[in-house]
Amino acid sequence: MAGKKNENLLKLKKQLKDGVLSSLYVLYGEEEFLREMYVGHIIEKIPDGGFPEFNHITIKGADIAFSEYDNALESFPMMTDKKLIHIKNSGIFMSKRSSAGGPSSEEKKEFWSEKFKRIAEDTVVVFDELSVDKRSALYKAAAKAGTVVEFSYQSEADLVTWIIGRCLKAKKKISKENAYYLVTLCDPGLSNINNELGKLLDFCEEEIYKTDIDRIVSKSIQVIVFELTDAIMAGDTGRAINTMTDLKTVHESAFNLIYLMLASFDKMLFAKLMQGSPQNEIARELGVSPYIVRKYIDGAKGFSEEALTWMVRRVAELDLAIKEGRVDEWTALEQYVMECIHMNNR
């Protein structure tokens, strides 16, 4: 599967290099930074001739009327040889029902199956999607008619290589260890890492050190939640309280934190129940990147199945207490954390 993904990306790169484009593209996946970059590369290959409203047409959202697509597909390019139609988040490659009043899945299948077969030579259609169902008939039809490329989250090793490469282009240095440390502090996705790395490159002179990363980089809220769950695992009440105090200072929502902790404990429980399964399989089942899933697998080792089950179930009781006004959000969070520490140390 990975080989096929690489093969499709190499095919796209060659098309861009040679300037010979497919009439149809489906670019999809959670790695938005790379997806947007390659959509941009395709757009750059098609001059708008000074009439972007006619030659670079963008259609966004699901359940768009067929007539809007028809108008875009049937129009002629103006003062240029080709026009581009950028269709973003159409959802047509997902096997799900349309919203009320929208075309049915069968109607979409019939409409687009015909369109894919007869896209005009002067038209390039780019579908820009977060996710697709590879089993759907339309996905298979698009793969047959054009070029499909998946952009999934990069591996830790790839992210580290990318960070080091970007630093070299900026004539600055970062060690492999510090590049990895930066990855661990950011949310998944090159966009997040790119933003934080940009701040570091602006701040640092010749080399980026760990102290610079600690001073400049904004930790993702999920990383802070992991620090809180680590404190619970270690039974470190002081560290847990300090972490919550820091979060309270930056006006983070306690209610949101409770549910982020719930999500973390739920994933740890799932990882514990899948113990012995390949890491990639656990990542796929949890819907997280391979390098993030290791945090859940490692975290699960510090809790019993009984403790994790209790931690997951306890949130529903706290949620009700908050909504009924019997306890405020921060008191509920503090109570939950202390109860989790006690439960795990029994």
Briefly note the structural class of the backbone: alpha/beta
Task: State Rg.
Answer: 24 Å
Write the element-wise H/E pattern from the N-terminal end onward.
HEHHEHEHEHEHEHHEHHHHHHHH
Q: What is the 3D shape?
A: globular
Work out the helix count: 17
**For the terminal residues, how far apart are their CA atoms?**
45 Å
Q: Beta fraction of the residues? A: 5-15%
Largest β sheet strand count, sense and barrel closure:
5 strands, parallel
- The total beta strand count reads 7
Which spans of ≥5 residues are poorly predicted at pLDDT below 50?
Answer: none
On the 0-100 scale, what is the average pLDDT?
Answer: 92
Report on the architecture of this protein.
The protein is of the alpha/beta class and 346 residues long. The protein is 61% helix and 9% strand. The chain has 17 helices and seven strands. The protein has helices spanning 2-18, 32-44, 52-55, 66-74, 105-117, 137-145, 156-169, 176-185, 190-203, 210-216, 221-234, 237-249, 254-273, 279-286, 290-300, 305-323, 329-344, and strands at 24-28, 56-60, 83-88, 123-129, 147-150, 173-174, 207-208. The protein has a five-stranded parallel β-sheet with strand order 2-3-4-1-5, sandwiched between helices. The protein has a two-stranded parallel ribbon with strand order 6-7. Helix 13 (254-273) packs antiparallel against helix 16, helix 13 packs parallel to helix 17 and helix 14 packs across helix 15 (290-300). The radius of gyration is 24 Å and the shape is globular. It starts with a helix and ends with a helix.
Write the layout of secondary structure elements.
Blueprint: H1 2-18, E1 24-28, H2 32-44, H3 52-55, E2 56-60, H4 66-74, E3 83-88, H5 105-117, E4 123-129, H6 137-145, E5 147-150, H7 156-169, E6 173-174, H8 176-185, H9 190-203, E7 207-208, H10 210-216, H11 221-234, H12 237-249, H13 254-273, H14 279-286, H15 290-300, H16 305-323, H17 329-344
Parallel strand pairs: 1-4, 1-5, 2-3, 3-4, 6-7
Helix pairs in contact: 5-6, 7-8, 11-12, 11-13, 11-17, 12-17, 13-15, 13-16, 13-17, 14-15, 16-17
